[in-house]
Amino acid sequence: MTQHVLITGANGFVGKAVSRALLQRGDRVTGLVRRPQTTADGVREWVFAANDFEGIDERWPVSLHCDAVIHLAARVHMMRETTADPLAAYRSTNVTGTLRVAAAARRAGARRFVFVSSIKAVAESSSGCPIGEDDTPTPDDPYGISKLEAERALVEYGHKSGLEIVIVRPPLVYGPGVRANFLQLMRAIANGIPLPLGAIGARRSLVFVDNLADALVHCTIDPRAAGQTFHVTDGRDLSVAELARALATQLHAPARLVPVPVGLLRLAGRLTGRSAQIDRLVGELRLDSSHICECLGWYPPHTVEHGLLETAAWYRSTH
């Protein structure tokens, strides 16, 4: 059965992958974006540039009736924060803005709202045991706090309004078009730069963008997803060293990994004021993604190897 899905942030890295996955199913897709002509081919655009979705209820097109919303738009995690009150800024977009979209969509007839949160809403690290959906959340930065608050506000709104809420918490997402730290890692490996990653054995969960997109499609159509929270991963966790070696292979570049002891890396982080970045690099962050498998019968359609191959092929063709 086909459906009409509204995607906020449809022109982003994940948004374009989700759009393609839905279009391949035969679904109709409307992309809510701030700039015109930025979505994937086949997506109907709705350009709405108001900050934090203010006034979206009044501006909702009369002809726009969607079955489900996938909410990707967010104020994302920033390494160098410039706002005087970061938490207030994150709350304005990620909590207040999210609720505005949910309420407007419900009034327009949507039955389901899939909220793409983040594992940062729960924790920055795991300690020997993968993080499950029922673990007590302890976010430690404004971004993670705002995502957790949005989750809780949506659940409450869903109970009051009847809108079916589905929460998805991905870890780091990679694939063609990836930016930020993952792109920097590929660039360094491709350029043959020695990296102090050889002794890092801690494993971290990842998710290939097309695996995440496939999971989000399932979350819009499967009745069993209503009211659920899911962690979504590739199902195989790599250490940073294993990831770097695998990328080097796919990039046809030498893996120049220097086995610097983790203790020295942490010391360097403290001396340079980059402890948070070093902790993310050397610390374990594993997710238990068995719940979506057991609840929906969903399994990642692509292997880690395939995901890294596609990502490296994109990098080699564009850089």
User: Based on CA inertia axes, which overall geometry fits?
Assistant: globular
**CATH superfamily grouping of the domain at 4-173 and 209-233 and 287-297:** NAD(P)-binding Rossmann-like Domain
Bin the strand percentage: 5-15%
Structural class: alpha/beta
**Major sheet summary line:** 7 strands, parallel
Mean pLDDT: 95
The CATH topology label of the domain at 4-173 and 209-233 and 287-297 is: Rossmann fold
Short description:
The protein is an alpha/beta fold and 319 residues long. The chain is 43% helix and 13% strand.
Describe, in plain words, how this protein is organized in 3D:
InterPro entries: Epimerase_deHydtase (IPR001509), Lipid_A_modif_metabolic_enz (IPR050177), NAD(P)-bd_dom_sf (IPR036291). This is NAD-dependent dehydratase. Residues 5-225 form the NAD-dependent epimerase/dehydratase domain. This protein is an alpha/beta fold. It has a domain at 4-173 and 209-233 and 287-297: Rossmann fold (3-Layer(aba) Sandwich). It has helices at 13-25, 56-59, 86-107, 142-161, 180-190, 209-221, 240-251, 262-272, 275-282, 290-296, 304-318, and strands at 4-8, 28-33, 44-47, 68-71, 112-116, 164-169, 172-174, 203-204, 206-208, 229-231, 238-239. Strands 3-2-1-4-5-6-10 form a 7-stranded parallel beta sheet, with helices on both faces. The chain has a two-stranded parallel ribbon with strand order 7-9. Helix 3 packs parallel to helix 4 (142-161), helix 7 (240-251) crosses helix 11 and helix 8 runs antiparallel to helix 9 (275-282). The longest helix has 22 residues, at 86-107. The model has no long low-confidence stretch (mean pLDDT 95).
